[in-house]
Amino acid sequence: MSEFFAQFAVPHPSTLIYIAMASIVLGSIALVAIVTYFKLWGYLWREWITTVDHKKIGIMYLITALVMLFRGGVDAVMMRLQLAIPENGFLDAQHYNEVFTTHGVVMILFMAMPFITFFFNFLVPLQIGARDVAFPRLNNLAFWLFFMGMGLFNISFIVGGSPDSGWTSYFPLADNEFSTSVGTNYYMLALQIAGLGTLMTGINFITTIMKMRAPGMTLFKMPMFTWSALIANLIIVFAFPVLTVALAMGTMDRLWDTKFFAIGDGGMDMLWANLFWVWGHPEVYILILPAFGIFSEVISTFARRNLYGYTSMVWSMILISVFSFAVWTHHFFTMGQGAFTNSIFSITTMAIAIPTGVKIFNWLFTLYKGKIVVTTPMLYALHFIPLFTLGGVTGVMLAMSAADYQYHNTMFLVAHFHNVIIPGVVYAMLAGLTFYWPKMFGFMLNERLGKATVWVMSTGFVLSFIPMYITGLDGQARRMYTYSDAAGFSTLNMVSFIGAGIMSVSFLMLVWNIWYSFKNSPRDIGSDPWDARGLEWATHTPIPHYNFAITPDVTDATSEAFWDSKKNGVKLFKGEIKDIHMPNNSGQTFILSVFFFIGGFALVFSMFTLAIISLIGILACMGYRSLEDDHGYHIHKEEVELIEKKYEKEGGAK
């Protein structure tokens, strides 16, 4: 019996890990106690866990993303603290490996991905005038599969040990010979489960956008964010199956010694690198294209003019999506693939900068002669343009395969990647969060605190990452947990640590802003506090469950339908109120996801009997759904009219 429980122990414990364990256990107990004391279990089950409302599912993605932003941010600060001074003993080599591995996975897959999926869920149906997504129950299942994958990955920290072979998990480092704990098993299985949820999301939103647009909304009348969502989800559907197959092969290598990626016995370690980056580089654009869509909405709103070059913006995103699948080997220019192959992928990597540059110029031309209103979302956008451009320029430097031999394995590359992702994705997510906060919750975040947060964040960002370019060019390798004083990196690394601390302060300022605004912001803001332009602002605040009492008709409008209705008198809501059909909530999807979690955990520790039981549970849930007779329900015309009159009386309608 003792041997059975011994396998769940963390193989490399430390004081920090024990503190984390205690914090997680005590925090979990406190959360359960609070929910129980206030008798919220029934409410959570009815209104959130089983919901198929795209808006509530979006908010659950948002909460997950913010929690993971904190989780990944702690890892980042720990790494910068470790490197702040030479020969630091704050983290040992093993713990540092685990921290930078989990930091990468958490930030890319469990923070940035749910953040953009939050916007997909909350915005897309509203922007296209739909009641919900095409497959509401699948949407609920997608969230819970993602959530269970995220949960499975995060418990590795306290049960069995974290993965330690980098966020890319390169073989042979990730095989059983070099990664002897179950940490990499967690990586392989958690990402498969979460990836299934993401793939379902991709299928769902492609169908929603192609089949459920409001009357009159042609493809080239869609809002720019909806275009970005369509293209990003198309990339998801093409890219994520590659990752799923690679992870399945990696799982079989680790559990059943199949040798797909072994150096000997016919395996190919470079096969993993190719499969990973065939997914991995499109993944960057899965993140960045929706961010571009958010910035397009924000910039056009606060420049008080329509987006310059709408058609060119759309085609540039389409070109980016195509090129994104033709650049993957630039991630291993230094791995011996030959000058000819390196040259081809060097050219394609440089070429992808062209449509990206088109978007930068379109945003600048939108600002040109615009009546710019510098709100918090707009300030994020104004900071994004120069910072992201710097990241793009250093990307072109890395695209030169000969020069990449100097840059590749250094902190220069780390600085470049963060220089793209933080201003490009994190700034967009926070700009969009601030922009759409009043539509979600009925009150605005404090503008003074919001603007201060942007400036503090940008100050911390510059101090944290610009020094890495310099130390990288001076030869500081990435993934090294320490360095000697003679290397001369200490001063700039201390500056980077200070910058990371300042960025942490900006996150705390965001949290304080949410709390302060919740307590003090007025609730009588109407439904259009920003004087916005898109169809999503033509709804009430708070948004009714059915979104629109009458399906909007945008035949006479442009891609900025709400602006046309306000300024040009275009009528969006024609006809009369009728009965509205809506889908039922479902608890079966949550139960199904729990079986996936149990099965994943069982496979991590090679408990095959439990895994088989979980598989039976999964098949039983699928069989139950196949036989279930569920046709949803109707909100009758009279009830809709009463709800609409209530909104009009309270001033919620625009």
TrEMBL record:
Q: Which UniProt keywords apply?
A: Cell membrane, Copper, Electron transport, Heme, Hydrogen ion transport, Ion transport, Iron, Membrane, Metal-binding, Oxidoreductase, Respiratory chain, Transmembrane, Transmembrane helix, Transport
- Protein location: Cell membrane
Classify the source by domain of life: Bacteria
Question: What membrane topology term does the record carry?
Answer: Multi-pass membrane protein
Give EC number(s), comma-separated: 1.10.3.-
Cellular component GO terms, alphabetical? plasma membrane; respiratory chain complex
Report the CDD domains cross-referenced here: Ubiquinol_Oxidase_I
Q: What is its main location?
A: membrane
Output the Pfam families linked to this UniProt entry.
COX1
Report the pathway entry: Energy metabolism; oxidative phosphorylation
> Which cofactors?
ferriheme a; Cu cation
Explain the purpose of this protein.
Catalyzes quinol oxidation with the concomitant reduction of oxygen to water.
Q: What is this protein called?
A: Quinol oxidase subunit 1
Q: What is the lineage of its organism?
A: Bacteria, Bacillati, Bacillota, Bacilli, Bacillales
